[in-house]
Amino acid sequence: MYRLFVFILLVVFFSCNQKAEKKPKHLLSDIQMIDALTEIHLLESAVKLNLIEGLKNDSLNIRDYYEALFDTKPYSYKEFQESFTYFTKSPSQMEVFLDSVLIRVQLMELEN
User: Fold this and answer.
1) What is the C-alpha R_g of the chain?
2) Sequence ranges of the domains in the chain
3) In this structure, are residues 74 and 56 in contact, taking their beta carbons and an 8 Å threshold?
4) What confidence score (pLDDT) does residue 4 get?
5) Whole-prediction pTM value?
6) DSSP one-letter code for 1
7) CA–CA distances in Å: residue 102 to residues 15, 26, 44, 45, 75
8) What is the largest CA-CA distance in the chain?
9) Could you report the per-residue pLDDT of 13-41, keeping only the tens digit for each?
């Protein structure tokens, strides 16, 4: 009976340990993430606007636009995706990013 108790205790103890989240090899910085999220927001807004206005006459899909966007960046679309997946596991960090994106977009509206 004692062995069973010790076994159950050990199982519970080791199952409660949090696994350390593995950081991507090329994790984007906070500034890079905010920049990328802002650009993606603007890109997706433009694509949706074109769909609403019926201007969808090209054969490109959204992924083609993403790849073209990231061709101009010092990081790849894949690195962004890995970083995005990593940061989504931290809602408070994502909230900071998205608040920053909102502020940037609002500042862009004021400039125009």
Assistant:
1) 21
2) 26-111
3) no
4) 43
5) 0.72
6) -
7) 39, 25, 14, 13, 22
8) 75
9) 555 555 556 777 889 999 999 999 999 99
Residues 6+ apart with CB under 8 A from 67: 77
Of the candidates 72, 71, 70, the residue with the CA atom closest to the CA atom of residue 83: 70
Number of H helices, E strands in the chain: 5, 0
DSSP 39-93: HHHHHHHHHHHHHHTT---SS--HHHHHHHHHHTSSS-HHHHHHHHHHHTT-HHH
Selection from 79, 97, 88 nearest residue 28 by Cα: 79
As given in the structure block, the two tokens for residue 43 are: 């890109």
CB count within 10 Å of CB 77 equals: 16
Structure tokens at 90: 């931290």
Sequence-ordered list of residues with C-beta below 8 angstroms from that of 40, at least 6 positions apart, any chain: 66, 69
Classify 89 as helix, strand or coil. coil
> Would you tell me how many other CB atoms lie within 10 Å of the CB of residue 104?
17
